[in-house]
Amino acid sequence: xxxxxxxxxxxxxxxxxxxxxxxxxxxxxxxxxxxxxxxxxxxxxxxxxxxxxxxxxxxxxxxxxxxxxxxxxxxxxxxxxxxxxxxxxxxxxxxxxxxxxxxxxxxxxxxxxxxxxxxxxxxxxxxxxxxxxxxxxxxxxxxxxxxxxxxxxxxxxxxxxxxxxxxxxxxxxxxxxxxxxxxxxxxxxxxxxxxxxxxxxxxxxxxxxxxxxxxxxxxxxxxxxxxxxxxxxxxxxxxxxxxxxxxxxxxxxxxxxxxxxxxxxxxxxxxxxxxxxxxxx
Length: 281
Prior knowledge:
Layout: H1 4-13, E1 17-23, E2 34-40, E3 44-53, H2 55-58, E4 93-101, E5 108-115, H3 123-143, E6 152-157, H4 165-172, E7 180-181, H5 182-188, E8 198-199, E9 212-214, E10 217-219, E11 222-226, E12 230-235, E13 238-239, E14 252-255, E15 267-271
Parallel strand pairs: 5-6
Antiparallel strand pairs: 1-2, 2-14, 3-4, 4-5, 6-11, 7-11, 8-13, 9-10, 12-15
Helix pairs in contact: 3-4
């Protein structure tokens, strides 16, 4: 996502949404895009947020690191012993948000939006970022005393295909609690709505056959992972390979970096309350 302040924020505010946004870091070169997520103002309120900077991996910063007040990001990127740029410096980011329902104030949901490094030659970098993401989610929930009950949605462009180490790591979840793919769940239960323009082709690991379409690469690399507190009700069929997209997921919009190549994953979800299993917001 780019042009957040110039276009997306005012455009969505006019339509009843608030949101959070994290611009990419600038350690390697100037960048204007980032990750954001948006929610209906009349249904949710923002309680807390956490920005993720994956460059922290290269800087040996612990999960949950917060720069001391008044400090700024290092001007020079760290290098390895051979003088080359540290491979974990990729200026990739993510953002976490803890939301509370305005219609049932004892119910919450934690939503994440992220974008991992793209290059297939650096699968280890993407894996380190995925592990960092899960660690950040777990600590964020613990710091808000909600780790055992809050519904969790972790969406993003993972630049990794089904069955990859990144995909498998995300499914293993955190804190001994697994995650699952919302879209794969919907397809497995026959909850993808029929459409003449969409596709319900199933690929590896029960995921969509593709979420990304470019002349040289077509595969599934975008996912919405959820925990057991989220009940997947239905999903929209993916647009055809020639169609552009807009990201819409019921009352919560997730947007990450893309270049008119990623297909929309849209699904309806309910959030199960810990005290009342099976109930929804």
